Amino acid sequence: MLYTRSPAPSRPPTGLPSTSAPDVAASASSSTSPPPAEIEATCLRATIAAIPGSLAEELSDVLLTVGASSVVVQEHRPPGAPEQEIYDDGEAKLWDMCDVVAHFPLEADVAGTLELAVGALEAELEAPLEYVVESVANEAWVEQIKASYVPLQITEDLWIIPEWSKPVDLSATNVILQPGVAFGTGEHPTTRLCLRELRRMADGGELQGAAVMDYGTGSGVLAIAALKYGAARAVGTDIDSLAVVAARRNAALNAYAQPAFVSLQCGAGIDDAEPLASATESDRSFDVVVANILRGPLVELATRLGSYARPGGKLLLSGILAEQAPEIQAAYAAEGFEDFKLQKDQQWALLTATKRAT
Amino acid sequence: MAAATKSSGPRTLATTIKLLVQAGAAKPAPPVGPALGQAGLNIMAWCKEFNAKTAGYKEGTMLRVKMRVYSDKTYDWDLKTPPSTWLIKKAAGLARGADKPGHEVAGVISLKHLYEIGLVKQRDSPNVPLKSIVTALLHTCRSMGMRVVSKPEDA
Fold it and tell me: CA of A346 to nearest chain B CA: how many angstroms apart?
C-alpha cells in the first residue's frame, strides 16, 4: 500500500489565537478568525534511547500491551554519526540501535508502565532504560497538520484555500476552510471526485437554486462548494460533533449561515433518529444528495439517503473503493435510482445516479 | 516542514510506527495524530485510507497497524491482530498499568477465552492449527503470571 505525497512549500499559519478564546463562529474576518476547534487533551511522549534493534520489535509490542497508545521507532543516531541506511528489500529490518518513542495518555504512570514493560520482556536488559518524558501539547502535532495545508487546486477554476492563506486565483471559485479538524480538506481523492462532479453539474446549471444534502459533511467542503455554485440551501450532517461545529464555522468563513447552510448532528446507524425529523416534507426533499462516507453506512442508510432525493434528483456517493461500488449500486437501485455512472481516482470511486421520476 | 527527499539512490527507512486502532474509527486525534505527526505524515489522509480499508470488519474490532515510513515520505502499512498479551489482558479485564511498579499484576483467564483469542490470532496465521496457537497462548499466560482455569465461572 503506497502513498506518495509531494513535498509542500512551507507556509506557517499566521496569528493563531489561543485555544482558550471563546468560539466565535460568526466571525469571517481573518484577523479575528475563530479559534481552533477543541481537540482532545494532550498526551505524553516517552523517548527511550539506544535500544538494540533486536529488542525494539518486542519492546514495541510489549509497550502497546501495557498501555502505550502508539510506538514510533527511529534510528538512534548520535550527533555527527552517519545514517544507517535500511533499504526497502522486503526484510522488515530495524536499525542496529533504535530510539523507541511511546505515546501515553496524560493520566498514565509512565515510569511504572515502563518498569512493567521491562519486566515483561523475554530477554533481560543490559542496563536500565534511559528515557525522557515530555508533554505533547495539542498545538504541537496540530501545528504539524496545519503547516501541511496549502492552497489546493481542484480544477482549473476551483480551489480550496486554508483559512490562513491568500487565494491564488481571485477569479476562481475559492472555498475557504479551516482544515485540521474534520475530513474534507480537498486532498483526498474522494473529496476531489465529488468536487469535480459538483463543478461539472454547476456547468450544466444543475446546482442553480438547488437544495443540497451533504450527509457526512465533515468540514462542509462539498456543501460549501455547492452553495458557491449557486445552490439555494445546503444541509450538512455528521456523526462527529466536532465536524458539525467545523462545518458551521467553515460555512461562516465563506459567508454562509442559516438558512442557507444548516449543520446538524446525526447518529451513525439506521436506528438513530432521522436528523431532519422535525423538518417539513419539502425541507426533507433535495435536488442533490451527496454522501462521501463509507460503504457500511451507505448501504445501511440507503433508504434514508434515497428518500432525501426528489424524483429526478441527483445522487453522489463516495468514500468507497472501486470494488465496493457494485454492492452500493445494488442497494440504491432498490431505492429507485437509475442511470448509475462510476468514476474513479486511484482505488477510490464516485457513484452517481438519478432518482427515477415516478 | 522540510521535505526529507533523498537526492539520489533508493528510499531508506525513516520511521516505523505501531499502534492499535479500532476498525473504521481512525481519527486525527491521539493516538493516531501524535504518532503519524512524529513521522511527518498526512494524518487525515491515512485515517480515511485506514477507515475505508477496514470498513468490512466487525464494529469495535481492534487492529494493530504496523507502518514503515521511508525517506521520501512514502509508506507501507499492514494490519494484524493486536498482540496476544494485549488480548489476554483485555479478556482478563485487567486495567492497564500497574499498582506495584515492576510487578506483573496476576490475573485469571479461562480456556474458553483463550480459545476465542486463538481464533482471533489465527487470522494472522491461517495455516497454523488452532491447537498450536492456543498452546502458545498458554505459554504466554504462564510468562505473564496469568492463571488459566477451565471455565469462565471459575475465573
Answer: 12
Which of A4, A116, A296 shows the shortest C-beta gap to B98? A116
* A354 and chain B in contact, CB less than 8 A: no
CA distance A200 to A225: 12
Confidence grade of residue A9 (pLDDT, cut at 50, 70, 90): very low
E strands, chain A, are 43-52, 70-75, 97-105, 131-136, 152-155, 158-162, 173-177, 211-215, 233-238, 261-265, 286-292, 309-321, 337-345, 348-355
Is A142 in Cβ contact with B52 (below 8 Å)?
A: no
Out of 1.10.3720.10, 1.10.10.250, 3.40.50.10190, 3.40.190.10, select the CATH number for domain B84-154. Answer: 1.10.10.250
Report the pLDDT averaged over residues B21-31: 81
What mean pLDDT, rounded, does chain A reach?
83
The pLDDT assigned to A317 comes to 98
pLDDT tens digit sequence for A166-186 = 899 999 999 999 876 677 778
Q: Which CATH number fits domain B13-80: 3.40.50.150, 3.10.150.10, 3.30.1550.10, 3.40.50.10490?
A: 3.30.1550.10
- DSSP assignment string, A229-256: TT-SEEEEEES-HHHHHHHHHHHHHTT-
**Closest-approach residue (CA) in chain B for A144:** B37
> Which tops the pLDDT comparison, B90 or B116?
B116
Residue-level pLDDT at A17 = 32
Chain A residues close to B37, C-beta within 8 Å:
140-141, 144-145
Residue A117 structural domain: 2-146
Q: Answer yes or no: do A99 and A21 share one domain.
A: yes
Pairwise CB contact (< 8 Å): A65 & B89: yes
C-alpha cell, A197: 462532479
A142 to chain B, any CB pair closer than 8 A? The answer is yes
**Residue A152 included in any domain:** no
Q: A71 in contact with B at a CB cutoff of 8 Å?
A: yes
